[in-house]
Design a protein that fits this description.
heterotrimer, A alpha/beta, B alpha/beta, C alpha+beta, A: alpha/beta, Beta Polymerase, domain 2, five-stranded mixed sheet, two-stranded parallel ribbon, about 30% helix, about 30% strand, C: alpha+beta, Cytochrome-c3 Hydrogenase, chain B, three-stranded antiparallel sheet, 15 helices
């Protein structure tokens, strides 16, 4: 499997522009990146991954604080090669690729609860890890709202008790 | 006086599994001596009178812990196993952490460690049994209980309780910076600096000792971390770091470590730098050296 | 007539908290399975962005204490990739030694839990006691029975001298014959076989579709060991070190096959440790204690005792990561549980769960 082969499989099917770069680490392992300018194109990439018998390893999301958009990177594995496909979303939605690649299931559910980015078309609605006592999108804030409301950190509270007992 | 049959049940409230994994050999391996305590492991929390709790109490565990504890018949004792159970340790201040466990359960014995050695966990259980017997017989619980298992030793290399040599410490705060579980606090006072190491918040990783530029902070192989709840905030290693008097102007100042000087004076041989003068006098000396 | 059964979240046979809601038929066969996770969710992906790179060496170790060497190692590899640092060969060797020692201890813990749950007491006791030698070894060389604190950005904190190498070799000499003996007994013990053969089967097709990794994959006949598929560290520089995975491969896909796959992994790990310490590269053990970390992003992966571990790291040149995310083996192996449990006896549920060697703290984070 090479990045060229993969490129041939997707290049005529994409809606938008894209950038491709190959990165080989000093151990000789290939690690390719595709930046897609149209987020609908993730479906095309997912279908290509499936046709090569690859899998979705995991997906990473993060908030871009400058403009409030979210970046989502899907990490795929095709026969030992890691392929990272990146999209941007400004309306907190992406098209779910779980119907195409079952292995993306949990990763997309985490995207929903941690960043409040909805994978549209995902088969499951239940929370995965985040307890219902915590609002979804918790990783969008540097400090969670519930902790801000407390005013002081648990560390401060505990250490103030320690300091009471310390004799100087 | 009557002796109770200790019946043990373990609850994991969100630990990294270290304490739970170590709990198994503690119970199952002969050499750790738990069998000598006559402990019985029970399948149902309703039958238990000693509850071992691990983990920092995650949001999702909280309601389940409350309902589990509600089922236990009095009297019972709670042994917090691992630094997380005692103070949430390294996970403290995360949005998903509602602990430490003593916010919702009355804890009797704390076993700090990350994870504690099986010997410490066994000691925690032994002290728990002692407290349980005292409660059953209506006795007052003492402020401390002496170590029950006497014959334990740890290898020299074991990372146990941290200690500080105040003469070598320069209050540079490297240890405070690299400590992942906020177990070290350095505060400025009139006489210098206070350096506190709180063993119940320590995750015994040795980061502080490894990165310390002067070797002032170091780990001992003591695993005497099994304490009663009343000692929770008192198990602190506290030292005063006194400043020196400048050999030039006589003002009091904190001498820098050679390691730190090396970062600042990359082109000089650090060994030759005069460390007996304060930073103000050093600036003057440097200025003269370069421009006079 | 179906019956609803709940297991967990606090249960003596569950090492970590998880909650099963099952529906069983009149023969106590599982018809429906719902698994509730999140009991060990500690918000770690948020915590790592609040701690600096030095603190994160230890925080990543506390993701899970059974694979507690792989996490900081993989995290360090990501930092090194962003910084463009090639670590000394000696450090690569030291990382492999620490990693394989952990693998032996971790796999042996899983096996002792299997025999504990199967009530094959003698096997459990002997497995647990054999594992104790590895625990003692970790305490003597690294200072703790679970968390070795061996990794440093750009290398390792620890080094080995002749005395320590001898301690390691002596331990392996004691342990290896015991492991070989245990392997024979696990293979042939009638009681254990009755309880584990044909139980919790994961057919090859399902295993491929779900994308399982590690001993779970090897138990169903798939070899996707990262040390072989995408070798890193010393496994890349010295290919002869890579595990001979055929020794671990099994076709049956049941609880027994997964246990035997682990024996293959353990014996190869013992062989790897011996090979590495027999020919330790000379040189430094790290490049820079506190390296400067520029802005960048990297994806790296390693083979943890349970399978593929992958780290994504994004930095901006400051003292803390901007984003760090990791995928652990159990994250994908978990889906296979449903295939294994459905249609099996409800009394086997905890044993089947144990057979994927679940690391829930890794998964929930």
């Amino acid at each position: 499997m090479s990045i060229e082969e993969f490129n041939d499989a997707i290049k005529n099917k994409l809606f938008g522009d894209y950038e491709l770069k190959e990165d080989v680490d000093h151990y000789g392992n290939s690690n390719s990146w595709i930046v897609l300018h149209d987020k609908r194109d993730m479906e095309v990439v997912a279908k290509a991954v499936k046709s090569f018998k690859g899998r979705c390893v995991v997906a990473t999301g993060y908030l871009n604080e400058m403009d409030g958009t979210h970046t989502v990177i899907y990490h795929f594995d095709i026969n030992g090669m890691i392929m990272n496909a990146q999209i941007n979303t400004n309306d907190k939605t992406v098209i779910s690729i779980t119907p195409i690649l079952r292995s993306a299931d949990w990763a997309e559910r985490e995207l929903r609860e941690m960043y409040d980015v909805e994978p549209v078309g995902h088969p499951t609605k239940d929370r995965l890890f985040l307890d219902y006592s915590i609002a979804k999108g918790v990783l969008n804030e540097y400090i969670s709202l519930s902790k801000i409301q407390m005013g002081v950190s648990d560390t401060d509270v505990l250490w103030s008790q320690v300091n009471k007992g310390v004799k100087v | 006086m009557s002796e109770v049959v200790p019946k043990l049940f373990r609850i994991n409230t969100g630990s990294c599994n270290g304490c739970d994994v170590e709990f198994m050999p503690t119970i199952l391996v002969e050499k750790f001596g738990v069998s000598t305590l006559g402990v019985e492991m029970v399948e149902d929390i309703k039958d238990a009178n000693i509850i071992a709790i691990t983990g920092p109490l995650t949001a999702r565990s909280e309601s389940f812990l409350k309902s589990a504890v509600g089922k236990i018949r009095h009297p019972y004792v709670v042994v917090g196993v691992g630094t997380c159970a005692v103070t949430c340790g390294i996970f403290r201040d995360s949005y998903a952490i509602n602990g430490p466990t003593d916010k919702i359960v009355d804890v009797n014995v704390n076993v700090a460690g990350c994870p504690p050695r099986p010997q410490s966990i066994a000691e925690g259980i032994a002290k728990g049994i002692k407290v349980l017997n005292q409660v059953m017989n209506g006795e007052d619980i003492p402020k401390t209980i002496d170590t029950i298992f006497k014959d334990f030793s740890a290898p020299e290399s074991f990372r146990g309780r941290m200690d500080l040599n105040p003469d070598m410490c320069t209050a540079c705060r490297t240890c405070e910076t690299v400590c992942p579980s906020t177990a070290i606090k350095i505060t400025e006072i009139a006489q210098g600096h206070v350096h506190n190491i709180w063993h119940n918040s320590c995750c015994y990783c040795g980061n502080c000792a490894y990165f310390c530029p002067t070797g002032a902070i170091f780990s001992t192989n003591s695993f005497d971390t099994v304490k009663l709840q009343s000692e929770k905030f008192e198990d602190v290693n506290s030292e005063i770091i006194k400043p020196s008097d400048c050999s030039s102007c006589g003002d009091s100042y904190m001498p820098p470590s050679r390691g730190l000087l090396g970062k600042g004076y990359v082109h000089d041989d650090v060994k030759k730098l005069d460390t007996t003068i304060c930073s103000k006098c050093r600036k003057e000396a440097n200025f003269k050296r370069m421009y006079a | 007539m179906s019956e609803k059964i709940e297991i967990g979240p606090f249960h003596t046979e569950l090492e970590e908290s998880v909650y099963f809601k099952l529906e069983v038929d009149e023969h106590r066969m599982v018809e429906k399975v719902e698994i509730i996770n999140g009991f060990i969710h500690r918000g770690m992906e948020s915590l790592v962005t609040k701690k600096n790179f030095m603190q994160n060496l230890i925080l990543t170790e506390r993701v899970c204490s059974l694979c507690s060497n792989n996490h900081p190692m993989t995290y360090a590899m990501a930092v090194e990739k962003i910084s463009g640092i090639t670590i000394p060969l000696r450090a690569e060797a030291l990382r492999v030694v620490a990693d394989e020692v952990k693998r032996v201890a971790s796999d042996m813990f899983n096996l002792s839990m299997l025999t504990h749950i199967a009530h094959t007491h003698e096997l459990m006791k002997d497995t647990m006691n054999t594992r104790e030698h590895m625990q003692d070894l970790k305490e003597v060389i690294w200072g703790n029975r679970m968390d070795m604190s061996s990794n440093l950005l750009t290398g390792t904190k620890y080094d080995l001298d002749d005395r320590k190498v001898k301690i390691i070799l002596d331990t392996l000499d004691t342990v290896e014959p015991k492991i070989r003996d245990l392997k024979e007994r696990y293979e042939n013990d009638e009681e254990l076989k009755t309880k584990t053969v044909g139980v919790g089967v994961l057919p090859l097709e399902d295993a491929l579709e779900i994308g399982v990794t590690g001993p779970v994959a090897r138990g169903s006949g798939i070899n996707n060991d990262v040390r072989v598929m995408a070798p890193y560290g010393l496994y890349a520089y010295r290919p002869e070190l890579q595990p001979n995975v055929t020794l671990s491969l099994r076709k049956e896909g049941d609880v027994h096959a997964r246990a035997m796959a682990r024996f293959g992994d353990i014996l190869e790990a013992v062989r790897i440790i011996r090979d590495v310490v027999a020919d330790m590269p000379e040189g430094d053990t790290y490049v820079d204690k506190r390296p400067h970390i520029p802005a960048g992003e990297a994806v790296v992966r390693t083979e943890a005792p349970r399978g593929e571990l992958i780290y994504y790291l994004k930095t901006d040149g400051s003292q803390k990561p901007v984003r760090m995310r990791w995928k652990v083996p159990t994250f994908t192996n978990w889906e296979a549980l449903k295939v294994m449990i459905l249609g099996d006896k409800v009394d086997n549920v905890t044993m089947i769960l144990n057979s994927i060697d679940p690391c829930i703290s890794c998964t929930d984070r």
